Structures are given as structure tokens and as C-alpha cells.
Amino acid sequence: xxxxxxxxxxxxxxxxxxxxxxxxxxxxxxxxxxxxxxxxxxxxxxxxxxxxxxxxxxxxxxxxxxxxxxxxxxxxxxxxxxxx
Length: 84
Known about the structure:
By secondary structure, the chain is of the alpha+beta class. The protein has one domain: 2-Layer Sandwich (GMP Synthetase, Chain A, domain 3). The protein is about 40% helix and about 25% strand. The protein contains 4 helices and 3 strands, in the order H-E-E-H-H-E-H. Strands 1-2-3 form a 3-stranded mixed β-sheet. This is Bola-like protein. It comes from Torulaspora globosa. GO terms for molecular function: 2 iron, 2 sulfur cluster binding. Belongs to the BolA/IbaG family.
């Protein structure tokens, strides 16, 4: 099973211009469900589907091993409005 650190490392190495990354194991540590928030200006000009696909492609092998995966992708400007 992949860990929070496994997902974090894969995203950090594969996504340029990463501003912030929040990876949370929401399955009480058993590695079956993850919630991920990615903040990067790489997402500028991309819609939600394109953003999600970019992260899903990075984590293709890890996602195949887990039960549930949720990912929210924001640019820095969008994130600043979310965390007011």
C-alpha cells in the first residue's frame, strides 16, 4: 500500500511550480483512502478535469493499489480565496 509520503514524493517530483501540497490518509493510517490538495500555477488555464488527469497520471500506479482517492487542484490565486 502506498503511504502519504509515497504520494507526496511522486507529486513533488512530477509537478513543476508546486506551491503547496496536502496529503491526508483518511483511512486511519491503513493506506486505503487519500485526500490530496495540490496548489500549483501549473494548473493555470486548465479546467478541473485536466488538472485531475494530470495528477491521476502521476499517481497511476499508486491509485491502482488503493480504495479511494480524492484530489483538489488549485492555482495559488484560487487557493488564496479558499483559505481566507
